Structures are given as structure tokens and as C-alpha cells.
Amino acid sequence: MKNPLCRELLLSWPTGNEYVKLYSWFIANCVFNSFLSITAIIFNCFTIKAVTTTSSLPKTLRTLLLSLTVSDLAVGLLAQPLNIVLLFKWLQMNATDGPTCPTYTAFIFIGILFSAASFFGVMALSVDRFLAIHFHLRYEELVTHKRVVSTVISLWVFSAILSSFTVSFSWNTTSAIFAPIGVSCLVISAVLYCKIYFVVRRHKSQIHVVQIQQVEQDTEAVANLAVSRKSAAGAFYVYVVFLICYLPQFCSFVAASASSGPNTAIKIFTMSSWTVVFLNSSLNPIVYCWKMRHIRRAIVSVLRSSFLRHN
Hints:
Strand content: under 5%
Low-confidence stretches: 1-12, 94-99
Mean pLDDT: 77
Radius of gyration: 22 Å
Order of helices and strands: HHHHHHHHHHH
């Protein structure tokens, strides 16, 4: 039996002459998604190797980054290939046929699952870096590896539940569930990064005083705080890239809800927004390399050893 979401979204699929109008766009999107799928797989495989071999990273931060990287890898391995299959189906459709519901259901379930896992992974990273900066002396006491692992597992389970809701209930019901959760998480993360900014400014002044006084017993604390500050900056860039990539999809949801009926522009915008969301999985490893020195060094080491092994 077709699920409620598929029945409602049948109205948003290409129909009639739209297959001809969007033919070139379908081909371009297939090529772009194929490229992004390959880059997401390669980049995230190297990143997973780097994260697992970087002993200088705290175990808690390593666990959060590993969860986020695994979700990005799954996007390249599963979600994007399904999106490409769906686009190929549309390329072969005539005016009277429509995409099979199982294909679209699988795409929506897997796409929402790993997108939600990435979303909550970024939010968890924001909270972790706030705690590391704000409670840097008590951080290891408050944030233990066991607690982080439990949190990551809970977020993945919650993502699976949300994904199941998406393919089991109507669009209005799922929107009513997703909207408050998404907005709340984004607002909380924005507030946390604002607080991180002010805490870092205050700590910079304290570090300057310590350096002037040359208090040797605080040298380790100053060094740890500097590392936490750099990792918080890296997490902030991950958050910004995430917002840029996910904002079009949020806008497409609003546009689809506000529209009186399906139109070609909204269909193109909605399908393009999924591609931009998937782009995030290829960009995250680049941000890690750019802003997190330990991961950058580990990835360079992995690339060097791989190159030497094959020559």
C-alpha cells in the first residue's frame, strides 16, 4: 500500500510536458550527483581513517566527528545513488507514468535518516565545543566518553524514528514535527556560538595576563584552552557550511507548503535543494582539513602512505 507521503508528493513529480522541459536539467543533476557521490565517498573514507588514527584528538570529539563523518559517507554510498536512480527513472518516464513509490520511499527514508543524523551531529558538536570552552576545567568530568557514545547512539535512533515518521504519516504531520525541532536546534546552536565567542574573548584576556605574569603552573591550562578554542572555531565553520547547504531545503519546504499548487519552479527548487544538502557531505571533510590541524596532518599522512604504497 502506498504511504501517505508518497500519495501527497505524487502531485509534486514531473508530469506531462515537464519531462521534456526538465530533461536537460535531469541529465545535469545526474552528472553532478554522480560526481558528489564519488567525492563524498573518497573524502569521508580518508577522514574516517584520519579521525580514528589521530590520537591527539580527545576521545569525545573523535566520537562526534566519527559519527558525523559516517553519516556523510552513507549519504555518498546510499542516498545519492538512490537520488540518481530516481532521476534516471524520470528521464525514462512518459507523460502518463510516475516514479514508483518504493523507489521514492527508499530515497526519502534514507535521505532523511542520514541528513537528520548529520543535522543532530552538527548540533551535538556545537554543544560539545561550548562545554569545552565554558567549563574547560570541568569538561572531562562533565563530558565522558561513555556519555558521548550514549548520546550519539540516541541521536541515530531518533533520526531513524523521524525518518520512519516521514514515510508513514502525512506531509502536514511530518512538517509539524520537523519544524519545531529544526528551528529549536538551530536557535540553540546560534546562541551557543554567541556564548562561545564572548567566553573566548574573556579567556584571551585571561591568557594575556597569565603570559605577562609567566605563571608556569597555568601553562598547561592555557595550552588546553587554546586547543579548545581552535576546535570550537572549526566546529563553527562546520555549522556555517551546514546552514548554507540546508537552508535551501528549508526554504523549499516553506515554498511547497505556501504554494496553492505544484509548479515547475518549485519542483526544480525542491529537487535542487536535495543536491545542495548532499553537497554538504563532500564539504565537511574539506572544512575539517582546513580548520582542524590534527585532522589535516593525519589526512596528509594517510594520502602520503597510500601514494607510496602504490608506487
